[in-house]
Design a protein that fits this description.
37% helix, 3 domains, flat, OB fold (Dihydrolipoamide Acetyltransferase, E2P), 8-stranded mixed β-sheet, asparagine-tRNA ligase activity, 5-stranded mixed β-barrel, nucleic acid binding, alpha+beta, BirA Bifunctional Protein, domain 2, ATP binding, 575 residues
Length: 575
């Protein structure tokens, strides 16, 4: 009807659906994404497979840090020696003054991202190719008056005070590339030999070595500080407040009982029960606060570790061996590769508080099998460096140890000598051309001077010493039939001495229990380890390689603090 249409008016019109949809789909204002840039590694330019002819004319984006920079041609252009860490070699970069202010680029340590064209340098220059910059994309400036790593040669000891910057030096960057290659080679070797990689815990309740030099993991101190702070801000309730709260709970309980006996309504009883519950909760909180005491919790005059985070004493691991054995007894051949810790107050050039261990464990393997795997693994690592890290190894030869590459060749290609501990002692006792600092006698633990004499003087090659006295080896090593020695072996190499320590594990339950007791260790923390012998025990063996020692051996460096990115030792834990 006309009247109906007239009364509807504008309010009855269809909603602007199209306009609303367009508005809802309109993009919100946000920053435009910076386009991705494909950065070319310097290694692929100066050390890649491409020929100079193939490189010349190619446009590339390169990023790195200025090793040296100098303005030339009365400030019309600058030469930059750029390194991006992909290799030891630098790329020479030429920047004209009209492209970018040269004073912002030439300081050592400056980071730059540049785009340009590769070209052939003039005849007589050492570079085979250089980069002519067309555009400077990014600059991370440096104040040369404050930069702590000048162009002059710096000692490794000096660099330990700048662990956050020392990777920019030739030596530490070369060491890190060697370390990376050895890590990759480790995973490659075990993968090729049918091993599975197992991540073992860093926090443990077992002492693998039995030496007791472990970092403790505890929250008792921080918890005690929190309690002390809490008690200062909110003093604990008095005994009278506790008694009043107990009386209130009693009264509320009696009220509930009366309502139930008088057959009160369900709503009344529920309300009363709710009040009783609140009174009980309040009492529990008061009693909990009443029991709070400042200081470390104690029981029977000793620290009460039952109130610690894990409900018992816990430590940073000294080895993943015991734990990885559990997987060897299920998956067969396994290995773990990770950080380990030792709270040893030693400042020698061979000790760290945090270091990395490679620890394979081999099911159904005896000591001979163990020695075979260890020898093959070390040879594999040495050959890997010769094949994949030649430039950095040549740098080590030039700067630190002229025999480094020859040593790798020797170890990778020479069968290891294998002698018993008893034979090794006899050989050392007969030495007349050298006086050892540590007296040689059966039952002693061979010192580094003895190990190096065996490898560097007597045999002039790697040596595996086996069947050590049980008194100087760990409880888990298999007791030999003579009851005096254990089926243990150490791989000794020139330069560092012991590189690997391993053994056949004790698979006999009764013997293992006796060995744990002889070591003065409690059985309770090792019950799970004993279960491996109770349920389907199996002959198995394994070894551990100190990763940093392997790097020392390869590079020829003298101090272990220089072959780990962030060294931790007594008094120092930078970053």
């Amino acid at each position: 009807m006309p009247g109906d249409d007239a009364t509807a008016g504008p309010a009855a019109a269809d909603p602007p659906v199209a306009e609303m949809a367009a508005a809802s789909l309109a993009p919100a204002a946000h920053p435009v994404l910076e386009p991705s840039r494909h950065r070319t590694f310097i290694k692929s330019i100066v050390g890649g497979s491409a020929t100079v002819e193939e490189l010349v004319g190619r446009k590339v984006v390169v990023g790195g840090w200025v090793k040296t920079g100098r303005e030339q041609g009365k400030g019309t252009f600058a030469f930059l020696e750029l390194n991006d860490g992909s290799c030891l070699a630098n790329l020479q970069v030429i920047v004209d003054a009209e492209v970018f202010p040269l004073s912002h680029l030439v300081a050592t340590g400056t980071s730059v991202l540049v785009e340009g064209v590769l070209k052939k340098p003039p005849e007589g220059t050492k570079q085979s190719v250089e980069l002519k910059v067309e555009q400077v994309l990014e600059v991370g400036p440096v104040d040369p008056s404050k930069y702590p790593l000048p162009k002059t040669r710096l000692t490794l000891e000096f660099l330990r005070d700048f662990v956050h910057l020392r990777a920019r030096t030739n030596t530490i960057s070369a060491v890190e590339r060697i370390r990376d290659e050895l890590a990759y080679a480790t995973h490659t070797f075990f993968r090729q030999n049918g091993f599975r990689y197992v991540h073992t815990p860093i926090i443990t309740t077992s002492d693998c070595e039995g030496a007791g030099e472990m970092f403790q993991v505890t929250t008792l101190f921080s918890d005690a500080e929190k309690v002390e702070k809490e008690l200062k801000q909110n003093p604990p309730p008095s005994e009278s407040e506790i008694e009043a709260a107990k009386l209130l709970v009693k009264e509320k309980g009696e009220a509930v009982a009366r309502l139930k006996s008088s057959r009160a309504s369900k709503e009344e009883i529920s309300a009363s029960v709710s009040e009783l519950t609140k009174a009980k909760e309040s009492l529990a909180k008061l009693e909990e606060r009443f029991m709070m005491k400042p200081g470390i919790p104690q029981k029977d005059g000793r620290i009460d570790y039952a109130r610690d985070f894990f409900g018992r004493q816990a430590f940073l691991t000294v080895s993943g061996q015991l734990q990885v054995e559990t997987y060897a007894c299920a998956l067969g051949n396994v290995y773990t590769f990770g950080p380990t810790f030792r709270a040893e107050h030693s400042h020698t050039s061979r000790h760290l508080a945090e270091f990395w261990m490679v620890e394979p464990e081999i099911a159904f393997a005896n000591l001979e099998d163990d020695m075979n795997y260890a020898e093959n693994y070390v040879k594999f690592l040495c050959q890997w460096l010769l094949d994949h890290c030649r430039e950095d190894m040549e740098f080590m030869v030039k700067q630190f140890d002229k025999t480094a590459i020859d040593r790798l060749k020797l170890v990778s290609s020479t069968p290891f000598v294998r002698i018993s501990y008893t034979k090794a002692v006899q050989l050392l006792e007969n030495v007349t051309d050298k006086k050892f600092e540590n007296k040689v006698e059966w039952g002693m633990d061979l010192a580094s001077e003895h190990e190096r004499y065996l490898t560097e003087v007597i045999f002039k090659k790697p040596v595996i010493v086996y069947n050590y006295p049980k008194g100087i080896k760990a409880f888990y090593m298999r007791l030999n039939d003579d009851k005096k020695t254990v089926a243990a072996m150490d791989v000794l190499v020139p330069k560092v001495g012991e590189l690997i320590g391993g053994s056949q594990r004790e698979e006999r339950l009764e013997v293992l229990v006796d060995r744990i007791r002889e070591a003065g260790l409690p059985l309770e923390p090792y019950e799970w380890y004993l279960d491996l012998r109770r349920y389907g025990t199996v002959k198995h063996s394994g070894f551990g390689l100190g990763f940093e020692r392997m790097i020392l051996f390869a590079t020829g460096l003298e101090n272990i603090r220089d072959v780990i990115p962030f060294p931790r030792y007594p008094g120092r834990a930078d970053l």
